[in-house]
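hi! just following up on the protien thing from before. the input was this:
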Amino acid sequence: MAVSEEGDQQIFVGLWRSNKVIVFSSSGLTELKTITLTGIKDGDWVFELGVMGAAHTLCVRMNLGCKALVYNTNGDVHTERLTAMNKTGTESIAVSSELMMVLWAGGLFIGGTLITAHHIPSLIEGGRHSSLADRDGGRHIVACFKIDESTIIRIKDNRLITVHDDTGEVKVYGKEDIFSLPTLFPALSSTINETEVTKLANYFKITSSSQSITNIRTLVQHLTNAGSITPQNIIQLIRACRDLELQDAARILSIYQSEKIHGLLFSEKELRKKLLASKEENGRNADLTQEMDQTREELDQTRETLEKTTDNLHQAELKSAQESKALEEVLQRTKQALEEKKKTITSLEMREKSLEGGRYSLEKELENTNQSL
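and the predicted 3d structure came back as:
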């Protein structure tokens, strides 16, 4: 299954053990049409499917023979098969812009796997059933690079994602990192011979005394060191190839430059997204700062109120203590007065008893006197 990313978004589904591809609308999943792929043998079917460009060019990898083919939306073959320099089968495909990335099977490099980038418009220009890889040494191959051993490749958000289906290991490569000037050398070497390299050296006025220029690799290295080109800008080299009528080389270099520009635009888009997210975050931070300021102000008011309440409570406690002390003094004086009154009462009672005793004595004495008389 694949989803078109340009033009009207549509979903393409290849049927198992069939030469049919069903096309659905992305909204509502309405079935739009059925594409019958030509040139497919009985028992073979689409194993991987990619959709490229607004024209919805189909890039497919077949189950049998691991062939990679390119179709138009009528089901007609643009090219029967793609092959690498050593004619091995395809392991996986992935689509990016005008390029189809092909992962090749068969242990092409010790400790790694070969990926080639094919320029699909160049294949289509060759006409129906044109096997450019066999006819002209793979001039549609614009780049070759090695990755860690993998069995499945996909491209998402300008990144190459690889998966090893035995171990499940997933790796992500920045396409701008792996699609570099050295990856062009295999394709450029097949289009520029030693004589043409010398012509290019003369075009840039490179003397033999300054550096030995023997192939396209050493030429590119010299131009990079001299500042004539950079990994992101090879316009001068493209212009030189066009002026010297090295059209195939100019085409490969132009495709590379286009991919680099696409990568820079993507990076700019990503940076703009991050900037917008940062501005939104700053806005949220500003709202949070305002909220914090309001909370701080409310906290200050609460603290001031608490301080006033504490002061009032302290004053009340002090007043209460003072009143309590005064009351205690009054009670103490009252207690002392009661003690004094108690002492007075006791003294009076004792005096009363004494008088009572005296009265009894007088009465007794009076009684005795009366008896004597």
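The longest helix spans residues 247-372.
The first strand starts at residue 2 and ends at 3.
cheers
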